[in-house]
Specification:
single chain; mainly alpha; elongated
């Protein structure tokens, strides 16, 4: 009827040949009369004063607090009288003509939000409650009105900070909001209940991430009310015009997974009322999901039904997120479980107010049962890719990356397909995820196998160029085929991808090689790449260089000493510039490899190795005082350093001019005597004294090259 009245009010054209029934003619007549005179409303003769108050308020520019309250009260009284006396005819058009919903929204938005001194909010929500009983009056306007209510009341200061706050006013205002929410849901047609609750929950969720405890508490309190309504909807009185109630099986809400995820995270706020309210809501939602699940069981399986009250008691006894999520798991739909996982991934971002440790604990549960939780691989993969760039915390990144690895182990094809689809070529976040997957032996083999098939046709792209993708394809060929030593070497030499000076590609390829080389058999085959590994050091890419050093060390450990001798000498020369690198990890890797390589020289290579090692003595000596813990393996106390300084004087008489020059540069410390750092000036003075006192007598060196490099 509302639609027909509205069409008449808007004077839509009616086809000349269209005939009208007696009922339609009556409605047409009523609508035309209401356009001219609201006193013709059927309910007018019961509440004429309130109709006049509404009309006067809308048309008057003066809207003080007293007039606002009378206006809102008149709306509530008018609609309540119409409902109880079945005189709702024409109210929808009346609301349209005088824009009642719009006027209420304006009042809510204009009311001060720093204090709660008046009953305007409470009266507005009571008016909305009564209006919800009349079909189509609030249709299309609920969201705007609710958003105004939530923003105004939730964002009020905490109760203890509001001056002269009357507890009864605060209590009745919050109670009025709860009553309004229940009425909006129960007075909706059965076909729209899911949609209505979904919309309200969605709005409430936006307030649960607030940094203010009072905002979270107020939002979660309303979520608890709606959770109770959801758990008991089938037994509550719905719209009397509806033929039947919605069954629990029909109450499908796509937002339930997000809702559960946020409530589980809110449990961590145990010092607030928020945590207790969240637990109540979770228990009510558990009741709903449990009973919904039981409703789908066949008669043969009815004996499998447990007691949900016993289950919820268990939840309250041990209210941890991990325990609750395990209890919910079997009663959730796959999409709901995936949404919960996504919520916990997003909780890891730096901007999130939720407890990161609690989120990591839940993700540990997810990784422990991937077949149950990691079902919607594309959705979760896309979420990880979207979120990882906003996570700087190392433990949080590791947790999310580990989840990606678990998913890749379970469904490598879906992971590879999705990541290639959602990430543009060369995307830094995607490269970090590929590297995480390339760090696990079994995972890297599965992923490389999938990449081999999906990158081969050039329709997908991982890097910025097809050339870089082709390098990864060749590595995948080497890893996925059971090649002998000669076939492996021939395949690599056919396209030496490590010669390509592409930093992103090199870093990722070397990460995969590092993992693949953990198998001794594969490491022995990889000796063919050693010359190109040495050239990688010349490119100057620190990430790639660090990985190349680790790979080189692993491969060399698999070679016979005679086979490794000459390669060791060559590599030692490449290492000299890296002993003083600014990156501590690179210094540690280079010094560690330097020590190993000098032990590998045999025969004629020993003399050449000795000459190269001498060139590394100075940087090694200075690194004895390295302040970085990762280089502390070579750190000695100052007494031993002084002894080594005395020993270094012998190099002033060395046969090699280059070594004598290095010794002179080292000893000529007088230029630092005026250094601005007192500690440096003191050290220079001590060094000069040592040099002068040692000029008369040079003791036999007590340090050997081997001792230096092995410490």
């Amino acid at each position: 009827m509302a639609e027909k009245l509205l069409r008449v009010a808007l004077k839509e054209d009616r086809a000349p040949q269209e005939s009208s029934s007696p009922v339609e003619s009556h409605e047409l007549c009523l609508a035309q009369q209401l356009e001219m005179d609201a006193s013709l409303l059927p309910v007018y003769h019961l509440e004429p004063e309130h109709v006049d108050v509404i009309r006067a308020f809308v048309s008057s520019p003066e809207k003080d607090e007293e007039r606002k309250l009378k206006f809102l009260t008149s709306i509530a009284v008018l609609f309540r009288a119409a409902k109880y006396n079945s005189l709702c005819q024409g109210l929808d058009l009346f609301c349209q003509r005088y824009k009642l919903a719009e006027n209420i929204k304006v009042l809510l938005e204009e009311d001060p939000r720093d204090q709660l001194h008046t009953a305007v909010w409470r009266s507005a929500m009571f008016a909305m409650t009564e209006m919800s009983f009349v079909e189509a009056v609030l249709e299309g306007k609920e969201i705007g009105l609710l958003q105004a209510c939530f923003s105004g009341i939730f964002l009020l200061p905490p109760k203890e900070e509001m001056q002269d706050l009357k507890p009864f006013l605060y209590f009745t205002t919050m109670k009025g909001m709860d009553t309004m929410l229940v009425a909006l849901v129960l007075n909706s047609p059965t076909s729209r209940v899911n949609e209505k609750m979904q919309s309200i929950f969605q709005m409430l969720l936006t307030f649960t991430t607030s940094e203010r405890a009072s905002v979270r508490e107020r939002a979660v309190g309303r979520m608890r009310v709606l959770s109770f309504l959801l758990a008991n909807y089938s037994s509550l009185k719905a719209d009397p015009n509806e033929e039947r109630h919605a069954s629990r099986a029909e109450m499908q809400m796509p937002i339930i997974g997000q809702l559960l995820g946020h409530l589980l995270l809110l449990l961590s706020f145990k010092e607030e009322e928020t945590g207790h309210l969240a637990l109540d809501a979770l228990c009510l939602l558990f009741q709903f999901k449990y009973q919904q699940h039981c409703a789908t069981l066949t008669e043969e399986n009815t004996q499998l039904q447990g007691d949900w009250e016993t289950e919820t008691t268990s939840l309250r006894t041990s209210p941890s997120a991990t325990h609750i999520i395990e209890s919910f798991a079997e009663y959730l739909q796959p999409s709901e479980r995936s949404d919960i996982v996504r919520v916990f991934i997003e909780a890891m971002t730096d901007s999130s107010t939720f407890d990161k440790e609690a989120a990591r604990n839940v993700l540990d549960v997810v990784r422990g049962n991937p077949d149950l939780w990691l079902v919607d691989v594309p959705k979760i993969t896309s979420c990880i890719h979207k979120t990882l760039g906003c996570i700087k915390s190392v433990p949080a990144r590791q947790s999310v990356e580990s989840l990606m690895v678990s998913m890749a182990d379970k469904c490598p094809q879906e992971v590879v397909t999705t990541l290639l689809q959602v990430a543009p070529g060369g995307d830094s976040t995607a490269l970090a995820l590929w590297e995480a997957m390339f760090s696990v032996p079994q995972t890297v083999r599965n992923i490389l196998k999938e990449l081999l098939s999906q990158l081969w046709d050039l329709k997908s792209r991982l890097f910025c160029t097809h050339l870089e993708d082709y390098c990864l394809v060749r590595l995948a060929m080497l890893a996925s085929r059971d090649l002998g030593d000669r076939a492996f070497a021939a395949t690599y030499l056919d396209f030496r991808f490590l010669k390509e000076e592409r930093p992103a590609m090199l870093s990722l390829v070397l990460r995969a090689i590092m993992t693949l080389s953990e198998r001794d058999e594969m490491a022995r085959k990889m000796k063919v790449i050693l010359p190109d590994l040495m050239r990688v050091l010349l490119f100057g890419y620190k990430a790639a260089t660090t990985k190349a050093l680790l790979v080189f060390r692993t491969i060399m450990a698999q070679l016979e000493r005679r086979e490794a001798s000459h390669i060791a000498v060559q590599m030692t020369e490449f290492l000299l510039p890296l002993l003083d690198d600014e990156l501590s990890q690179l210094r540690e890797s280079s010094i560690s490899l330097f020590r190993d390589l000098m032990m590998m020289a045999v025969g004629n290579d020993k003399r050449e190795m000795k000459n190269v090692v001498r060139l590394g003595l100075l940087p090694l000596f200075f690194r004895l005082s390295d302040q970085t813990q990762s280089v502390a393996k070579l750190k000695q106390d100052r007494r031993r350093a002084q002894e080594f300084l005395i020993q270094s004087l012998s190099y002033l008489k060395d046969a090699q001019a280059s070594l004598r020059e290095a010794a002179v540069r080292f000893i000529a410390l007088q230029t630092l005597a005026e250094d601005r750092e007192p500690s440096i000036r003191s050290l220079v003075a001590q060094t000069v004294i040592i040099i002068l006192s040692s000029s008369r007598e040079q003791p036999r060196p007590r340090w050997t090259l081997r001792a230096l490099c092995c410490r």
